[in-house]
Amino acid sequence: MRIMKAIGVQVLVIDEVHNILAGTYREQRIVLNMLRFLSNRLQMSLVCFGVSDAREAIGGDVQLARRFEQLTLNRWAANEDFETLIASILRNTPLRRSSVLTPKSLQRILQITVGITANIFRMLGSLAIESIESGTEHITDSAVEE
After folding, report:
1. Range of 33's domain?
2. Residue 101 near residue 141, CB atoms below 8 Å
3. pLDDT attached to residue 72
4. What mean pLDDT value characterizes the chain?
């Protein structure tokens, strides 16, 4: 706590907050009380990520739950925003050659990943690794199909 105060932490980001539910009731209370304490004492914001169970995990402490605005990320759909996301990922993937995918490949990515952001990043990351290992150094339509 001293270190966080000394360096001026303003936001604490917690991923997979739904894992709080894996603990006993007592352990859950300890974690939730600690989050509330840190938020109060250090006057910092909390940002928590997780699957739908995350709501239940945070909801275990009414005072803490009131501090959160719940947002749900929708699955990606075949639209311009999805195309922009893929283009951005491909543009920032450190491969020697640029990757350009056809609409058919974009549709296949959506189908395989069911539009879940983490799955999309994981798939494109795997495709990038495969392209490096194969020596092609770019993600191709055929690689997406395979």
Report:
1. 2-65
2. yes
3. 82
4. 91
Whether the predicted pLDDT of 65 surpasses 90:
no
Establish if 7 belongs to a structural domain: yes
β-bridge partners, 14: 48
Question: Percentage of residues in the chain with pLDDT exceeding 70?
Answer: 100
In a domain, residue 75? The reply is no
State the average pLDDT over residues 53-67. Answer: 83
Q: Are residue 6 and residue 38 in the same domain, yes or no?
A: yes
| Pair 130, 100 in one domain | yes
- SS3 of 46-61: the string is EEECCCCHHHHHHHCC
Token output for 58: 């945070």
Average pLDDT of the residues in 98-126: 95
Asked if 60 and 90 sit in the same domain, the reply is no
How does 131-142 read in b/e, with b if 16+ C-beta sit within 10 Å? beeeebebbbee
Are 95 and 139 found together in one domain?
A: yes
If residue 101 lies in a helix (H) or strand (E), which one and from where to where? Answer: none
